[in-house]
Design brief:
The complex is a heterodimer of chains A (186) and B (281). Chain A is α+β, with helices and mostly antiparallel strands and 186 residues long. Helix content of chain A is 30%, strand content 26%. In chain A, strands 2-8-4-5 form a 4-stranded antiparallel β-sheet. In chain B, the strands form 2 sheets. In chain B, strands 1, 2, 3, 4, 5, 10, 13, 16 and 17 form a 9-stranded antiparallel β-sheet that branches. A 9-stranded antiparallel β-sheet of chain B has the order 6-7-8-9-18-15-14-11-12, covered by helices on one side.
Chain lengths: 186, 281
């Protein structure tokens, strides 16, 4: 409840019209960003335990072997430390929408080969797409990823789906993108 | 020389090979809609006698200006995704995405830091131009509940005198803005990923305000210019997405509502290191 209360407090404050419209003073804008970020970080443990609980076979106990989940708040600038520093990663998506639908997952990637396995053990096709140069130059971005791995996740209504993503060094060639026109204009 | 085409769900889009910009959308029913998208900027009003453009006020000095250089671009195509990476200027870039199983075109933009060394405050917009016949009418969801009909230079409950031809036609957008051509049974909808402002200043056109950097206080209370420094002091960089749908009106109303809900209730994506596939299983 304490963790959720951080969100309640943050959202209570950020419903002020200055926060919604951006008419606050700059120092207040910094404070709003701080309050929201602080609430998110303090809720990471709650989110982790919730995902461990719903994805666990044995709901009565949690063990140290349960995966330790984290959010990647830099995903919108193609930055995610967990993915970049591990060869095997579990990507779990919780869908709060009350219908099943397909969601395009994009995670920061290097040009290495991949293997993506879905919830039913099926091997999924994915695509490796270069991150645009203008994003790689983003000043706050701290990432060695040069590409994004794109795959389609089928999300159940009000439920979760987990995907196993693995970097592999097999001889199987990476599916190559067709580059149609590389910067021919002036 | 031939246009580059990409196939989405229920449409194909063609792109200008000299700029990488989108130029038309062909629907499955055979209709072809001209669609141009470009970025422009307004100079903020800065005469001392009048309140300048600022946090509370949008008061452009005149019509919007374009970016002078021809965009450079790269295109990537795979069976799962078609992407155009386009550089418009030093501080405006975007990725356009089309997925074969998605009826929407995604515009993923990066704007900033807006340069102000020339002492001119700037407000950057994304402009969508179509050949839809709209008779000054457009729609926004400004009360957060329903699509509200807007008519350029008109108010339904009082006689409106046009003093500010641009700002006077801007309305809040909570999640979407749209144009409708009832004769041709066509609708353009742009879904946003945050609250923004927008207008239709010419028939068949929509513009949406993306990012503003202004150098004077608007004298309405905040007592500061809207001049965010960003992390390194060079100015704030923003990232965001627009989802664009062109379709017949009936299908469009179903599709944009469903997509709007999916964007509003986007999934929580969490990551965990894991040692083996067996653990995952």
């Amino acid at each position: 409840f304490d963790a959720v209360d951080n969100f309640h407090r943050a959202m209570g404050i950020l419903q002020h019209h200055d926060a919604v419209t951006g008419t606050e003073k700059q120092l207040v804008a910094f404070d709003y960003a701080y309050i929201l970020n602080d609430a998110i970080e303090k809720s990471m443990d709650l989110m982790n335990r919730a995902l461990q609980f719903i994805s666990s076979k044995d709901k009565s106990s949690q063990s140290n072997s349960d995966p330790q989940y984290t959010l990647c708040l830099g995903l919108n600038i193609s930055q995610c430390e967990v993915v970049e520093s591990n060869d095997k990663v579990l990507v779990t998506l919780y869908n709060p929408y009350a219908h099943e639908y397909d969601f395009k997952v994009r995670i920061p990637w290097q040009e290495s080969n991949y293997k993506v396995t879905g919830p039913n053990g099926e091997s999924l096709n994915a695509t490796i797409i270069p991150i645009p140069g203008f994003m790689q130059d983003f000043p706050e971005r701290k990432s060695s990823a040069t590409h994004e791995l794109l795959f389609k996740a089928t999300l159940p209504a009000l439920g979760f789906a987990s995907y196993f993503v693995e970097k592999v060094s097999s001889n199987k060639p990476t599916p190559k993108l067709e580059t149609i026109l590389p910067l021919t204009t002036s | 020389e031939a246009p580059i085409t990409a196939q989405g769900k229920g449409f194909s889009a063609s792109f200008d090979p000299s700029t990488g910009s989108i130029q038309s959308v062909s629907l499955a029913n055979g209709k072809v809609v001209k669609l141009r998208q470009k970025y422009q900027w307004y100079a903020g009003y800065d005469t001392p006698k009048e309140p300048p453009s600022g946090a509370y006020l949008f008061r452009p000095k005149g019509p919007a200006s374009g970016f002078p250089d021809q965009p450079t671009y790269q295109i990537f195509n795979s069976p799962d995704c078609f992407e155009v990476h386009q550089n418009i200027s030093d501080y405006v870039s975007q990725t356009m995405r089309i997925y074969p199983d998605d009826p929407f075109i995604e515009f993923d933009f990066k704007v900033g830091p807006i340069p102000v060394a020339d002492k001119v405050g700037k407000e950057i917009i994304s402009l969508f131009q179509t050949d839809l016949k709209t008779n000054k009418v457009f729609y926004t969801d400004s009360n957060g509940r329903q699509m509200m009909k807007r008519v350029k230079d008109f108010r339904p409950t009082w006689k409106y005198k046009v003093i500010e031809p641009i700002a006077g036609n801007y309305y809040p957008i909570n999640s979407r803005i749209s144009l409708k051509d009832e004769d041709e049974d066509l609708q353009l909808v742009v879904l946003t990923d945050r609250s923004q402002g927008g207008a239709s200043l010419n028939d068949g056109e929509l513009e949406i305000m993306l990012h503003r950097r202004l150098l004077h206080d608007d004298s309405l209370g905040v007592d500061e210019a809207l001049n965010e420094p960003g992390v390194d002091g060079r100015g704030l960089i923003i990232r965001g997405k627009h989802y664009v749908l062109i379709s017949d009106i009936k299908s469009s109303n179903i599709l944009h509502r469903e997509k709007g809900m999916q964007l509003y209730m986007a999934p929580v994506v969490a990551f965990a290191p894991i040692s083996s596939f067996d653990d995952y299983r």
